[in-house]
Design a protein that fits this description.
By secondary structure, this protein is of the alpha/beta class. The chain is built from 13 helices and 13 strands. The protein starts with a helix and ends in a 12-residue tail after the last helix.
Length: 413
């Protein structure tokens, strides 16, 4: 028994009324020798007291979090038999699993009242001996909110069920919200499309943000024909991140249009947000955005709106790698022009001037996009267009190792 568990147990014994107010539990998994939740009699006693105090209703929300990425439970079988089945799966409506591997599939499949599921940084699927069959007559949880971050394989395993020809371990027929941050296209596209198709008109919100790693740099995913929303007439909010300037997809706006074309004309879409990433691992001037296929984008947004109120948000993130040498060069240039050494602005002031110049270029470029590329919807009263730009600075790692090039390195691009 860990000291934390012993202290909590003592508190519940002294003040048992506290247990009536405990609705949520966070388990920090570090795999120390004395941390075996499924075999710790003191911890299991805590769970018993919490369940009894709430008149058998048990906990509502559970978070399992590894102390570091890829950590595995030492006592997975005992965890299911002694903890999950008596105290967790009959009650919880919200489950979050973070930075763990080889989680028994029962942790999701047996939580019959589960409505909110979050899977974060799960490095592998379950080992065969840890999968554990569902109890007889158990129905899969009908999840309404699903968040999958860097856990493509785990999601794939859930949808595949526990064997050949088995039903999925979650029911997506009432799924309303999907948030997805994948690691690659191949491992998630089929799984997510199955969720979208299964949800049908129930799906109201889809958020797709393919990024992770240093500086939240994007995992590039081509958008062409990525999703099909033809059966999602209930969709209200759509958010998609777009990486501009990747050689794998010369015109990502054209790829985005292939997704928009699948949205039925008779729809409930009220808000669409597209975040454009420029200058991430590429040299890309803001002015080049005018070359993208905004005309087709304009036509599709107009069709989707069809006179209904629609809020369109275009958010431009530009990652500019401004090196210290550039500010030094500006200082030298000013000295040469004046023939003397005037009071030179500080390095921070020079960086600020470069950043302000870049922000202005981004603003001007995207005002042109709205005026010239989105002429149809910009004159449509039912469509509200919001354009915001942001300069994102690389982290210390990227500055040190030069991950990001600067547009100033090659003005011809």
């Amino acid at each position: 028994m860990t000291r934390r568990v012993a202290t909590f147990l003592e508190i519940l014994k002294i003040s048992p009324w506290i247990a009536e107010h405990v609705q949520e539990l966070h388990l920090w998994v570090s795999n120390t020798e004395d941390e075996t939740y499924g075999e710790d009699l003191g911890f299991l006693r805590v769970m018993s007291l919490l369940t009894e105090a709430r008149s058998g209703s048990g906990l509502q929300r559970l978070t399992l979090r590894g102390a570091y990425y890829g950590l595995a439970f030492k006592d997975s079988l005992a965890l299911v038999e002694n903890l999950l089945r008596p105290y967790i799966s009959p009650f919880i409506t919200s489950l979050c699993i973070t930075r763990l591997k080889n989680i028994p599939i029962a942790f999701v499949a047996e939580c019959t009242h589960l409505e909110t599921l979050a899977l974060h940084d799960l490095s592998s699927t379950m080992d065969k001996e840890l999968s554990l069959s569902n109890p007889p007559n158990a129905r899969p949880p009908s999840v309404k909110t699903l968040e999958v971050i860097n856990s493509d394989q785990f999601l794939k395993a859930l949808l595949a069920g526990q064997g050949s020809g088995c039903a999925p371990c979650i029911d997506s027929s009432q799924l309303r919200r999907i948030t997805l941050t994948p690691t690659s296209r191949g491992d998630f596209q089929e799984s997510v499309q199955a969720l979208i198709s299964g949800a049908g008109d129930s799906l109201e919100e889809m958020k797709f943000t393919p990024k992770h790693g240093y500086c939240d740099d994007l995992v590039y995913v081509p958008l062409r024909n990525l999703f099909d929303f033809s059966n999602s007439a209930g969709l209200k909010n759509l958010t998609i991140d777009v990486k501009v300037g990747s050689p794998e997809e010369v015109d990502p706006i054209a790829g985005l249009v292939t997704i928009l074309k699948t949205i039925p004309t008779n729809n409930r879409v009220a808000r669409m947000k597209f975040r454009l990433y420029l200058g991430f691992h590429t040299v890309y001037h803001p002015d080049r955005c005018l070359e993208l296929n905004w005309r087709s984008f304009d036509l599709e947004i107009a069709r989707i709106s069809s006179g209904r109120p629609l809020r369109l948000q275009l958010e431009v993130w530009y990652q500019e790698f401004i090196r210290e040498e550039q500010t030094e060069e500006q200082t030298e240039d000013s000295e040469e022009e004046d023939g003397q050494a005037p009071a030179v602005p500080s390095s921070d002031e020079n960086l600020g001037a470069l950043r302000a110049e870049l922000e202005e270029r981004c603003d001007v470029a995207f005002q042109k996009v709205v005026q010239e590329g989105l002429s149809l919807i910009s004159g449509e009263p039912s469509v509200t267009i919001e354009v915001n730009s942001r300069i994102v600075e690389p982290c210390d790692y990227c500055r040190t190792y030069g991950v990001f090039p600067s547009p100033y390195d090659n003005d011809e691009v």
